[in-house]
Design goal:
CATH architecture of the largest domain in chain A: 3-Layer(aba) Sandwich
Number of helices of chain A: 11
CATH superfamily of the largest domain in chain A: Aspartate/ornithine carbamoyltransferase
Order of helices and strands of chain A: HEHEHEHEHEHEEHEHHEHH
Structural class of chain A: alpha/beta
Distance between the termini of chain A: 18 Å
Radius of gyration of chain A: 19 Å
CATH topology of the largest domain in chain A: Rossmann fold
Largest sheet of chain A: 5 strands, parallel
Oligomer: homotrimer
Largest interface: A-B, 31 and 28 residues
């Protein structure tokens, strides 16, 4: 049985297979035809923490495949409150559904669920741990515009110390040796050593050089609560993307963001050709369709 | 692209087209046949405030059409809590769903969403603003028993100062010049000047004359919190509908209420022929089916 | 019109009919074929209290039948908060859905809803009252391994004073005179007199005799808040099921639990052949499919 728990479990061939499947799913979506690939199958979304975006895109994906959904968006109100373990929840849910998408506040819950579940588990984010389905949609977004096998410069900007999206994405990009990674963040929230590889570069300011030479800039929110107030005040403008800065990017470069954004990108940037973050969000649908099909072994 | 944001956007022809569509939807419902008009389409319900009635009737409508639903009933727990704007939420959701029903606590959110959304927006109530899909179901309920083109007396009773349902309904009724409107409420919560037109009448008591001459009485809840306690105490009984009062209405007249009611109508009234408020609630389904079909341009 | 409100409404023939229907549903599930028995039908789940397990298994059941679902998992946030009665909620919901599954915090809500609803009501638990659909899944689980018409010893263990699952189950078992019931609990939380029948036995300790002679042990959570702390401390270990104790059970005996469990059964017990509680949970699906088909009169 296949699960999607961590970026670590996928090699280059797996990744390319899934990206290719996502492309096929995009063609199905574009055709506007009714798809019944997953007819009669049920996805359970089981979210300890609310997350509109991730939950709804999983549920959209399953329904676009012709399947149906049972949904829990705030588990803390229910059986878990009574003290149920993630193992018990997973065993019960796997008696109902054919596949489970799980979001949890703590690292390791998805792996623990996968150990006992009778059906595939899709990790929809486990605390400060991993968020592999987000990484697949990020990779898929990049792959629509760039060949991952050819030289490519990806700069990750903002909150790098705790951000599970950049951690998972950087791990996946290691499968593509021509991709160069820059980590751009104030020192206090720079990338942890274990994610920093030989050949990577660290920057502490968002310089013109980064703007001008990156093919992909992956921006994330600087979370106020994880950084000293004076550090936040010092950097918040330096790391703010406005039209002037984004216009310095190459015309075919892309600015990504996992959303929701708060103040880190001006709304005016949305109209620039480099702004790809809403398209990126939308890519959650074909990518999660692909991942559901992948773990369920559906014929596409 | 069509949206349903405000009562202002519909002229008489639009209204009649939608009421006619609702009638066809009622026939589909009555036939008990499986309908696939919206097969493969997804409705997103995105409710900042919980509203069982409105949300469930939208979701019922979409499923009766053969489509499916992604649902968020309490947005405050999720991305919005992190500071996402309605514009960003609408852009993201419109990458998932084919049509979005939105309920928000503040005026103008639906219009702001419509400006940026890639798919139609249905305003499911925006604070003290508008609630046009409610007005359509109200109008549809009236139109099942009365010809809107002929002389008709509609009395709106109760909370008129802030009630978005009566505001939207009164606007729509302006398209039918033979409809006479009475506004019946204590002075403190009477209809705002901008909704009061030449030919309308104001009353400050629920008199026998109103009961005996109205074809339609549209009652709403007097919300304690919007009125001084002594005014509430003075009027609460005067505006209470019991069997004695409702029996004074014409036999074919109708008593409507947007529900939920609390104390303003006695449960015993439910059995009288004039009581139409549960039928009115049920009409939310064919009406919202019609509105979904209208904005999506579905073949009926 | 049929409702499922109380264990009292079912005689032996009804019960056997429903268990037989559940067996057919299990065959449909095992066949992995797409089922359309309830296509076009809508189940409303209306839960005042959150209950992941019960709600999701109802929703799974309806979708496995090919129907669809409208869902409210925390009614307190919505119209009920505005003061709506259960009668009004039921009248409105029955204008939307074809069948309603209701969970309420207070005894009698399901019966009140059934009195006014235009569609069947399934009682998904009403406070300390009844939980008949749970009893059917419990009975179905027992009936898969034992003939209810032949001699059988069922021991109910733990919280017996307020536990609606044991109350409803004991009532249903009265239809099968060869079933002997033991009630095993500290005196403070023993079975109320009205559920204790001639021929039943009471025990105040979980003895080897009970372990060795029972065909079915139905364990429930001892709820700390319903018992004096010193009583809880005294009994919590005595009523704890570990591998040593469960191994004393007959090889073909079964240990059941309505879940969620907290500390009353060690996770290591899960691997023993007597452990049937996850299978029991899974049986919620075919049983609730059967009950939906039963009240809707669906052809199976």
């Amino acid at each position: 049985m296949k699960h999607v728990i961590s970026a670590d479990q996928f090699n280059k061939d797996d990744i390319l297979e899934i990206l290719n499947l996502a492309k096929k799913m995009d063609e199905i979506l574009a055709s506007k035809k009714v798809c019944k690939i997953a007819e009669g199958k049920i996805l359970a979304t089981f979210f300890y923490e609310p997350s509109t975006r991730t939950r709804l895109s999983f549920e959209t994906a399953m329904q676009r495949l012709g399947g149906s959904v049972i949904s829990t968006s705030n588990v803390n109100f229910s059986s878990v409150k009574k003290g149920e373990t993630i193992e018990d929840s997973a065993k019960v849910l796997s008696g109902y559904a054919d596949v489970i998408a799980l979001r949890s506040p703590e690292i390791g819950y998805a792996a623990r669920a996968a150990k006992v579940s009778a059906v595939p588990i899709l990790n929809g984010g486990d605390g400060a741990g991993e968020h592999p389905t987000q990484s697949f949609l990020d990779l898929y977004t990049i792959s629509k515009y760039f060949d991952l096998e050819k030289p490519l410069t990806v700069s990750m900007v903002g909150e790098l110390i705790c951000g599970r999206t950049v951690h998972s994405l950087s791990k996946m990009l290691r499968n593509f040796p021509n991709v160069k990674i820059n980590f751009v963040a104030p020192e206090e929230i720079q990338i942890p050593a274990k994610y920093f590889h030989e050949g990577d570069k660290k920057f502490y300011e968002l310089t013109d050089e980064i703007l001008e030479t990156s093919d992909v800039i992956y921006d994330t929110r600087i979370q106020k609560e994880r950084i000293a107030p004076e550090v936040y005040e010092k950097h918040k403008n330096a790391f703010h993307f406005d039209v002037a800065k984004v216009s310095k990017m190459k015309p075919n470069a892309m600015l990504m963001h996992p959303l929701p954004r708060v103040t880190e990108i001006s709304p005016e940037v949305d109209d620039l050709p480099q702004a790809r973050y809403f398209e990126q969000a939308r890519n959650g649908v074909p990518t999660r369709m692909a991942l559901i099909a992948y773990v369920l072994g559906l014929e596409v």
